[in-house]
């Protein structure tokens, strides 16, 4: 049994239907999807796995024991849906404003950031928020019952979004007991990474691993095996990243001119005929490890090519997801896990290697970090 999501097909069919023909959405869905949403034509197909195709509510009930963590996940998925709609309709233009890191903000960056601020302020379980666009931790808990600090990169990939390439949102969520400053990535109660491509999918760290949820396969949502429709479904369950990889994403290649070990590593990738898949967007470049079940992303630093990745907004959220899926991370300095690096400032930056275990070990070895 396979689950198929192709809202573009449904929309196109409706748009070109003769005016005299009235076809109900439910009827057209039945014709297109079949009994359980199956069809031979799609742009999304998953292999059947245990726990896959369940609703968001069912998956969280079974895989996330903390009720408040479940609530913050739902709240953040809701805003990812809002960002999806904004990306489909907003004109991508330069706002003329700059964030604290000197990056030009695009209209969609601003829209996404504003939507998340609204979401954390409305959430009953969020205590504090911090955006990469304005890296200050702010209290948003008017009711005084908030439990979590949410840090986010609202739309990573602003340099490629105008090309209509895939971009994403990253969120790390810390408990009130640790807050953000002085905590580590390992203290996160969960993290989420959303990828906005032909479809919207979100990776979420749950109690026993990393799960993927898909949004809005059709205007009604996604059809479950029981015939019901939900806005979010579990499309991949308990994802695993293999120890070996043949896909590499080499960020900060300029550092290879300064770091002999990095040049040696890149030469190893090429000589052993690894597949190069690198877009310059952190979300798609790391996200592919969960769909291909293997891969390595490397981003070392040097004096002339300093770190750009932010620990709290990017490295820690992805690090939790990768390690929960059986992968490994390196801080690029000591060779230790990125999840063990203490967060001493909101805008703290870091080197990073992340992905298949043996490839991260090779990175540490070649750069002499062990």
Automatic annotation (TrEMBL):
Pathway linked to the protein: Carbohydrate biosynthesis
Enzyme class: hydrolase
Residue ranges occupied by any Fructose-1-6-bisphosphatase class 1 C-terminal domain in the UniProt entry: 241-367
E.C. code: 3.1.3.11
Domain Fructose-1-6-bisphosphatase class I N-terminal: 74-215
Keywords: Carbohydrate metabolism, Cytoplasm, Hydrolase, Signal
Pfam families, per the entry: FBPase (PF00316), FBPase_C (PF18913)
GO cellular component: cytoplasm
Annotated PANTHER family: FRUCTOSE-1,6-BISPHOSPHATASE-RELATED (PTHR11556), SEDOHEPTULOSE-1,7-BISPHOSPHATASE, CHLOROPLASTIC (PTHR11556:SF35)
Protein name, UniProt field: fructose-bisphosphatase
């Amino acid at each position: 049994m396979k689950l198929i999501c192709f809202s573009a097909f449904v929309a196109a069919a409706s748009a070109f239907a003769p005016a005299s023909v009235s076809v109900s959405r439910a009827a057209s869905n039945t014709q297109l999807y079949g009994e359980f949403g199956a069809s031979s034509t799609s742009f999304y197909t998953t292999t059947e796995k245990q726990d896959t195709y369940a609703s968001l509510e069912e998956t969280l009930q079974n895989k996330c024991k903390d009720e408040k963590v479940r609530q913050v996940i739902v709240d953040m998925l809701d805003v990812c849906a809002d960002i999806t709609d904004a990306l489909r309709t907003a004109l991508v233009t330069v706002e003329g404003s700059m964030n604290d890191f000197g990056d030009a903000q695009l209209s969609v960056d601003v829209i996404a950031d504003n939507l998340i601020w609204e979401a954390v302020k409305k959430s009953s379980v969020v205590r504090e928020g911090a955006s990469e666009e304005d890296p200050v931790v702010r209290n948003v808990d008017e009711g005084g019952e908030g439990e979590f600090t949410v840090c986010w990169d609202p739309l990573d990939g602003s340099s490629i979004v105008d090309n209509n390439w895939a971009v994403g949102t990253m969120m790390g969520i810390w408990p009130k007991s640790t807050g953000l400053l002085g905590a580590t990535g390992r203290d996160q109660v969960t993290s989420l990474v959303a990828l906005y491509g032909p479809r919207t999918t979100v990776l979420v760290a749950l109690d026993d691993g990393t799960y993927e949820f898909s949004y809005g396969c059709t205007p009604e949502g996604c059809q479950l095996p029981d015939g019901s429709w939900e806005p979010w479904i579990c499309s991949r369950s308990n994802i695993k990243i293999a120890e070996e990889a043949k896909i590499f994403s080499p960020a900060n290649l300029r550092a290879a001119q300064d770091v002999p070990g990095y040049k040696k590593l890149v030469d190893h990738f090429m000589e052993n005929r690894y597949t190069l898949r690198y877009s310059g967007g952190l979300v798609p470049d790391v996200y592919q490890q969960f769909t291909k079940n293997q891969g390595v992303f490397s981003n070392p630093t040097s004096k002339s090519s300093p770190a750009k990745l932010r620990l709290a907004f990017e490295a820690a959220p992805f690090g939790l997801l990768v390690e929960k899926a059986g992968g490994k991370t390196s801080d690029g300095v000591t060779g230790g896990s990125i999840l063990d690096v203490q967060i001493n400032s909101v805008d703290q930056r870091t080197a990073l290697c992340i992905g298949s275990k043996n490839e991260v070990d090779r990175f540490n070895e070649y750069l002499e970090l062990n």
